[in-house]
């Protein structure tokens, strides 16, 4: 894909192992029930489902629905970028540290009709300090289907205070809806509980 140097790790950058508590080959579940990308409680969200893979990678699925259109019958490009962002974010989730998307680069190779299930595979290509380098590929209707979208990203590790300072904190970032009085609503993989922070 076309990508800038900002999403390519320096040569020889190591790829860390997932956190020992990160699930392997299991459904990851939502990190927040109202998340637009993965939350089952979001009425018009993507409801993306994902499973961790060997190493630092994730396999995810998202079916383009009526509410995701740009042109009639076709997925909106921003929605597709969101699906890639979400699947990429699930990779850094396996490190059990809070990250946010700093940069997202997307190549659209094929139009994606409503009803298509995108099979998205994402992986980490290296971590340097607070910076995690990631890439993703989405194929249409099968793991070996035609490639519709490619993406590369730089995620930046942030303190939990990021979500308190800029959002409603991290309450609810354990897959719940955050209506327990602890807040909720921040997006980006932070969690003081079982998901991100050990
Ligand atoms: C499971 C969870 C799934 C979640 C999936 C979805 C994820 C999301 O949608 S997250 C929400 C969208 N993203 C955001 O809201 C982030 C908004 N941006 C910010 O908060 C800040 O700009 C932030 C945190 C990225 C960086 O700010 P700050 O903490 O001050 O770090 P800063 O010192 O500027 O940068 C750290 C390093 O990253 C680099 N960097 C930061 N931003 C970028 C960028 N856009 N492009 C390239 N490099 C960048 C810097 O150059 C620096 O590199 P180096 O260490 O080599 O000098």
TrEMBL record:
The places in or outside the cell where this protein is found are:
Cell projection, Ruffle membrane; Cytoplasm; Membrane
Keywords assigned: Apoptosis, Cell membrane, Cell projection, Cytoplasm, Fatty acid metabolism, Hydrolase, Lipid metabolism, Membrane, Transit peptide
GO cellular component annotations of the record? cytoplasm; membrane
The record's GO molecular-function terms, alphabetically, read: hydrolase activity
Which of the seven top EC classes does this enzyme belong to? Answer: hydrolase
Region span, Disordered: 1-26, 167-198
The residue ranges flagged as biased composition, category Gly residues, are 169-191
From the UniProt record, list the reaction(s) this protein catalyses: (9Z)-octadecenoyl-CoA + H2O = (9Z)-octadecenoate + CoA + H(+); decanoyl-CoA + H2O = decanoate + CoA + H(+); hexadecanoyl-CoA + H2O = hexadecanoate + CoA + H(+); octanoyl-CoA + H2O = octanoate + CoA + H(+)
| Membrane topology note | Peripheral membrane protein
The EC number(s) attached to this protein equal 3.1.2.2
Q: Thioesterase domain: which residues?
A: 73-139
Which SUPFAM superfamilies has this protein been placed in? Thioesterase/thiol ester dehydrase-isomerase (SSF54637)
**What biological processes does GO assign it?**
fatty acid metabolic process
Q: Which family does it belong to?
A: Belongs to the THEM4/THEM5 thioesterase family.
User: What's this protein's name?
Assistant: Acyl-coenzyme A thioesterase THEM4
Can you name the source organism? Answer: Actinomadura logoneensis
